[in-house]
Amino acid sequence: MNKDELLNAIRTRMPEKRFVHTLGVMETAIQLAKMYEVDEKEAELAAILHDVVKFADRDWLQQTIIEQQMEPTLLTFHHELWHAPVGAYVAQQEFGVTNQDVLNAICYHTTGRKYMSKLEKIIYCADMIEPNRQFPGVDELRQHVEQGLELLMKACVVHSIQFLIQKNQPVYPDSIHCYNVLVAKGK
Ligand code: DGI
Ligand code: FE
Ligand code: FE
Questions:
Q1: Residue 185 has what pLDDT?
Q2: What is the mean pLDDT of each run of 10 residues along the chain (187 residues)?
Q3: Residue range of the domain that includes 41
Q4: Contact 39, 25 (CB under 8 A)
Q5: What pLDDT was estimated at residue 186?
Q6: Statement: the pTM of the whole predicted model exceeds 0.90
C-alpha cells in the first residue's frame, strides 16, 4: 500500500479527531526523522499505523493479547495500553509490515521500554508533541526538540510518568525501565 492507501484504510477505523492526530504524528515523526537521521519512510509508516486499533473493541483487544501470547501483565494494567502491542500485530497481519523496527515503534509507542531504537523514540515523542496535542507543559516538551533525541525523549517520559503519578495511576514496568535507562545515561 502506498501512503494515501494506508491513510484511507486507517481513516475508516477511527473518528476524524484521531485521524487528524495521526496526521500530526506523521508530520512530526518525518520532521524528527530528518533531524535525527532516521529513515523517513519508516517513521512515516510507523506513525500512520501507531493508533490503528485505538478504537477497536476492548474485548477483541484483550482476546488478541491472550491468543497471540503477548505479555499477560498488560491485562492487569489500564486498557489504554493494549492498543499499542495489538496495533503492531495488526500492522503485520493486515498491512503486511515486516520491518521489525517499525513494528517495535508501534508496539512500544505508549509505554516506551528500555534500550529503544531511534525510530521507537521518535514515534513515542511525536505522539506526545504533535501540533494537535494540547496539555499543560506540551510547549516546553516541544522546545526539547532542538536539544537532541535523548533529551527530548527523557523530557517526554518524565512528563508522562509524572502525569500518571498525579492521577494516582499505576505505571507500567516498561515505562519505569525506560525512565531508568534515560536517567542513568544522563549521569
Ligand atoms: O493513543 P494516544 O492517545 O495517542 O497516546 P498513547 O498511546 O500514549 O496513550 C496514552 C494513554 O495511555 C493515556 O491515557 C495514558 C495511558 N498510559 C500511558 N502509559 C501508561 C498509561 N496508563 C497506565 N495506567 N500506565 C502506564 O504506564
Ligand atoms: Fe496510542
Ligand atoms: Fe497516538
A1: 84
A2: 96 98 98 98 98 98 98 97 98 98 98 98 98 98 98 98 98 98 87
A3: 3-185
A4: no
A5: 75
A6: yes
Measuring from atom 9 of ligand 1, which residue has the nearest CA?
Answer: 110
Cβ of 130 below 6 Å from ligand 1:
no
Q: Which ligand gives the minimal distance to the CA of 81?
A: 1
Alpha helices in 56-148 (DSSP H): 58-67, 83-93, 100-107, 118-129, 138-143
- In this prediction, residue 73 carries a pLDDT of 97
Q: What domain count does the chain have?
A: 1
Q: How many CA atoms are closer than 13 Å to the CA of 126, on its beta-carbon side?
A: 33
CATH number at residue 40: 1.10.3210.10
Q: How far apart are CA 185 and CA 187, in angstroms?
A: 5
Q: Is the CB of 175 under 6 A from ligand 1?
A: yes
CA–CA dist 47, 165 (Å, integer): 27
Handedness of CA 37, 132, 47, 177 (dihedral sign): positive
